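Box S1 | Example of a co-folding query
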Amino acid sequence: MSGGPRPGPRAAAAMALVPVKRRRTAAAAGPVLPEAAEPGRFPGVVLCLVERGLGARRRALLAGRARAAGFCLHGPGSAAVTHAVAEQCSADEALAWLARRRGSTPGDRTETSTGLALLDLSWLLESLDAGRPLDIEPRHRLPVSGVTPSKEPDPAVLPAYGCQRRTPLAHHNAMLTEALETLARDAAFSGDETRSLAFTRAASALKALPRRLGSLRDLAALPGVGKHCRRVIQEVLEDGSSAEVEAVRRSERYRTMQLFTGIFGVGTRTAASWYQEGLRTLADLRATGPRLSRQQQAGLQYWEDLATPVTLAEAEAIRELVQAEAQRILPDATVTLVGGFRRGKPMGHDVDLLLSHPEEGREQALLGPLVASLEQQGLLLYQQRQPNTFGQEPSSSSMDQFERCFAIARLALPGAGDPGAWRATRVDLVVAPRSQFAFALLGWTGSRHFERELRRFAGRQRGLALSSHGLYDPQREMFLPATTEEEIFQLLGLDYVAPTERNA
Ligand code: CTP
Ligand code: MN
Ligand code: MN
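Box S1 (continued) | Returned holo structure for manganese (II) ion
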């Protein structure tokens, strides 16, 4: 096990929900693997994979990966074994298994008497990632039977809401989250938002885990992982991939929907109706010409550039350009890079800029002249402005009502050799008055799921309505003021989560 506690009643119940077919076939097979002849790249390290708990199929898979990485593997009969790796079993159970395979009794060899390390699979997986055998930490050791090792942070207390957790950009469960997020997208493509959200929630919880999920048992500690997610996770843990996910990824519908929804101005519904009509490629869309909106036409026209990730350097360049222009119009105007880049992403699909001014109301005179000026300089390939509607119409969705401009900018690429080189880049400009700035900053930093969780937490746990405009208390019929993100977290009774930890 990878650091979770020994299974409690909750974990046991969770395990019972898991189909056990795979496990049984594994237990039935039991050939002793031939002992490796090669010495391996790491002197002093001889692995033995304990089949108990791992299963034969997964053991063979792991053995292949370990050998490919240069590890020396011996069978359980070998006295040369230094590192015995097991999963979902205690040190005692692993020793008993080894002893049975050697035809001796468990008492013959103990971890301490011989220097044999009894390790959890997490040690091997982390070592394979690192490309070398890692130093053994206490958390890597198999627990002695019946003893709960103390570990921290305890995954059993992973909080229920994404906004209560710290979710770094780089996490330990990418294989699992990518599988679940594929299913989330696929469900969204079918219009099933509830199902999509279930997959997204499970993926989000895995992103907050401080280590690789080693076994299904650890899942008991994660909030919001349902049966279907569990099945997918088991498959990925055991086989390295999920048949269901692979089938989705290969399917014509999923691939087409990915392609179409990736176009600027194309949402799920439009993409689905195009798919329904038999359209499959960008060439198909170009041939349908007149049915495309102006936005979609621009999206198609610059598709290749827009499908190329924006780098942080490019985002900074655009921010500086926009700020220089904004301050020419209004000297104290502020331009803040938000969205994924503020969360520490090195790449993004667009550049999100939040505009404001220290003096309430002055920001209203900014976007019009700014866009006109950028356009005049030939820096905008497309732009679509929307007025501020806050307080005018009841907000329909979680979408905010700030004055904004969705644009495609023409960004010069000075370092590209060709002095005239440029690329098209999606830019979102949003204007917030000072009094709403902190809320807009919080709302536009994301991730989308983090925002969704913040709003859900505010509503369910605090009876407050959070948006990018403010925090509304329906009982007192007033907005609760805040000038910083920290204050908003405080008002919600939440520990502050830094932008780089909001990658939920
Ligand atoms: N956002 C919003 N209203 C919109 C669009 C976006 O409030 N109409 C917010 C979202 O909550 C999100 C943030 O703005 O958190 C940035 O959105 P987006 O650019 O779509 O996503 P990023 O997280 O920046 O990811 P990427 O790197 O792909 O751009
Ligand atoms: Mn963005
Ligand atoms: Mn955006």
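The longest helix spans residues 312-329. Confidence is low (pLDDT under 50) at residues 1-36, 148-153.
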